[in-house]
Amino acid sequence: MDYKEVTLLLNHEVEPFIAELLNALGANGVVIEDSAEVSKGRVDSYGEIYELNPADYPEEGIRVKCYFSLFDFNDKLLRDIEKSVYELRDVPITTFNMTTADVKDADWENEWKNHFHAFRASEMFTVVPSWEEYEAASEETVITLDPGMAFGTGDHATTSMCLKLVEKYVLPGHSVIDVGTGSGILSIAAHKLGASKVRAIDLDKVAVRVAEENFAINHCADEIETDTGNLLVGETERRDIILANILAHIVDLMIDDSYKLLNDNGVFITSGIIAEKEEMIVNHLKKAGFRILEITRESGWIAIAAIKEVA
Fold this sequence. Notes:
Keywords: Cytoplasm, Methyltransferase, Ribonucleoprotein, Ribosomal protein, S-adenosyl-L-methionine, Transferase
Helix content: 25-40%
GO molecular function: protein-lysine N-methyltransferase activity
Largest sheet: 7 strands, mixed
EC number: 2.1.1.-
Number of helices: 8
CATH architecture of the largest domain: 3-Layer(aba) Sandwich
CATH class of the largest domain: Alpha Beta
Family: Belongs to the methyltransferase superfamily. PrmA family.
Radius of gyration: 19 Å
CATH superfamily of the largest domain: Vaccinia Virus protein VP39
Strand order of the largest sheet: 12-11-10-13-14-16-15
CATH topology of the largest domain: Rossmann fold
Structural class: alpha/beta
């Protein structure tokens, strides 16, 4: 089957959300080429640092390639893509350009794998693609990942900041819920840190399926409960840790419920928040009764750890 390739040039702020947006519109595959990648040191399967070819990446922002069956493609789809991008809440759209091309099936099926390699995501965790062999050092804990159609390789600032906070605050025996689990990377990290109960939920059924596949790859499928769910609606079990790497306005919607569902001295870890929304989220957290433990910032994004402190 032949496909139509749609290429988007976008500003960096769109990256965490564009794959999910395009998948919802029927994309059969998504490749994201980030201009920032060329400045990062990468580790290959033999532990050697290698450099990426700048010619393979845009000069600035991100280049997104997505693929649609010719049977599904039409001009309305292009209008729907543009409309959906500009309707992203909390995300400024400063760059938008879209082009199309015809491609053969074999041209795109595995192309995105060329852009995802093993990398150190935090002091403890190294993320390794499922198709690569990797020999970990004694101080590394490997998370094996096949992100598929779900967001969350650990490479983006929002996910890597969350990973570092998870590494710091999740303790053996903790009960954890991961809201908007995506690829399941944060749930896997929590499990590997010794959390006794982990529940991973996402509104997107595709994300839940991808997460389940990644749990199986990491030999923890029987240890992590999955479900489709709308934030914390319907959740009744108290937790020691609540994770939410999602958009700021969605985080805002779940702050009060998070406070109610956390055990005393439980921690709410959240990201996906642009810097301009920091004050709004922090003020709401404090109003709900949280004390801010720390705020980390990277590439215009912030992550927050807040505690339900008992007087």
